[in-house]
């Protein structure tokens, strides 16, 4: 019986039903007609009418059916369906008393995105482009290094405010070699110019700073405790994949403590202790937040396995917290 069922019911006594009395009467008649002399059963069936067989069968069927109906009404073989979960939580109480897990409503996820999205920014990396040119008509002038006069867009990524006074976290590779950084913030018509406070190539982390044109505080995200996040928990990624601003993807935390190696312009770059998720992460998501169901940052989206589907990686919030002190105090570049 279900523990939530407080109502007690007396079991139905079968011998008190009129159906049983009728059944016994018909069976007595059947036995008296199918036996002769000294109680020896008659091997022939000619002495018993078809109607007697039929009556016995019908009475038996009515008895079993009546007991089954009473058992259903009395809830003899299962939990009380009235004991279902009415608390509005994330579980469903079944008739057998088993509690089944269920997903939270889509509204919860939408609320996380609505609350977190204003703190997520788009970062554009502008750099002066250089190129080589040979001497006129292929003469002995040799090659010459030339550069554009104005910085040109070299790449873009994502970042997020972790402080209301304008401090932004992102990946180091998003801002590497930049001559100018432009940050697009929701609510402002023009991008804001950012300066690099500190950066670490090894950790692939960077802190930027922008000033508020109107003196208003910026929305900020809280750095959560990744140790409280378990494999299988829902996580939400927000970023600007391929320039598509404020794209949200949803998945689960697939694994912790991953090690990967990525080849970049400086050679193989080894990452350790990464989070793995199947939330879609693409080019442009780098530097964006990976959020738990409470809207807290548990990781920073960093890399994706291009040869697979649903294998993305993020720097855990524990590493970010540990590095923040150095990034804030040791200058633009930290090894």
Work out the radius of gyration.
37 Å
Please state the second-level CATH architecture of the largest domain: Beta Barrel
Number of domains: 3
Q: How many angstroms does the end-to-end distance come to?
A: 64 Å
What's the assembly state of these chains?
Answer: single chain
Q: Structural class from helices and strands?
A: alpha+beta
CATH class of the largest domain: Mainly Beta
Extended strand count: 18
Mean pLDDT: 76
Number of helical segments with 4 or more residues: 5
- CATH-defined fold name of the largest domain: Thrombin, subunit H
Give the biggest sheet. Answer: 6 strands, antiparallel, barrel
**Element-level helix/strand string:** HEEHEEHEEEEEHEEEEEEEEEH
Which stretches are low in confidence, meaning pLDDT under 50 for 5 or more residues running? 1-17, 36-47, 63-103
Work out the helicity level. Answer: 10-25%
* Shape category: globular
Spatial sequence of strands, sheet with the most strands: 5-8-9-12-11-10
The CATH superfamily of the largest domain appears as Trypsin-like serine proteases
Give the strand content.
Answer: 25-35%
Mind explaining what this structure looks like?
This protein is of the alpha+beta class. The protein folds into three domains: 88 residues, no CATH class; 93 residues, Trypsin-like serine proteases (Thrombin, subunit H, Beta Barrel), CATH 2.40.10; 96 residues, Trypsin-like serine proteases (Thrombin, subunit H, Beta Barrel), CATH 2.40.10.10. Helices cover 21% and strands 33% of the residues. It is built from five helices and 18 strands. A hairpin with a 5-residue loop joins β8 and β9. α1 packs antiparallel against α2. The longest helix is centred in the first third of the chain and has 25 residues. It is globular and about 115 Å long. The two termini are 64 Å apart.
């Amino acid at each position: 019986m279900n523990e939530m069922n407080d109502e007690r019911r007396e079991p139905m006594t079968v011998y008190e039903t009129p159906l049983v009395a009728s059944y016994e009467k018909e069976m007595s008649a059947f036995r008296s007609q199918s036996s002769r002399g000294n109680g020896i059963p008659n091997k022939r069936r000619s002495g018993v009418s078809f109607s007697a067989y039929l009556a016995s069968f019908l009475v038996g069927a009515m008895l079993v059916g009546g007991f089954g109906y009473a058992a259903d009404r009395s809830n003899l073989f299962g939990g009380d369906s009235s004991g279902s979960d009415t608390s509005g939580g994330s579980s469903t109480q079944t008739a057998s008393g088993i509690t089944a897990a269920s997903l939270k409503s889509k509204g919860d996820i939408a609320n996380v995105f609505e609350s977190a999205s204003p703190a997520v920014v788009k970062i554009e990396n502008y750099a002066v482009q250089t190129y080589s040119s040979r001497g006129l008509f292929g003469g002995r002038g040799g090659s010459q290094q030339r550069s554009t006069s104005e910085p040109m867009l070299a790449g873009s990524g994502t970042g997020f405010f972790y402080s209301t006074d304008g401090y932004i976290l992102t990946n180091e590779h998003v801002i590497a070699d930049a001559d100018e950084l432009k940050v697009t913030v929701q609510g402002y018509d023009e991008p804001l110019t950012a300066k690099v406070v500190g950066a670490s190539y090894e950790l692939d982390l960077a802190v930027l700073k922008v000033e508020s044109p109107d003196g208003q505080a910026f929305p900020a995200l809280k750095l959560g405790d990744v140790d409280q996040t378990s494999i299988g928990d829902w996580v939400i990624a927000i970023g600007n994949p391929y320039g598509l601003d404020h794209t949200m993807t949803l998945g689960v935390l697939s694994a912790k403590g991953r090690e990967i190696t990525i080849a970049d312009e400086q050679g193989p770059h080894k990452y350790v202790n990464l989070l793995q998720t199947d939330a879609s992460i693409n080019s442009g998501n780098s530097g964006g937040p990976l959020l738990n169901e409470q809207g807290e940052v548990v990781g920073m989206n960093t890399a994706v396995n291009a040869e697979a589907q649903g294998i993305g990686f993020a720097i855990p919030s524990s590493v970010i917290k540990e590095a923040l002190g150095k990034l804030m105090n040791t200058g633009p570049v930290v090894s």
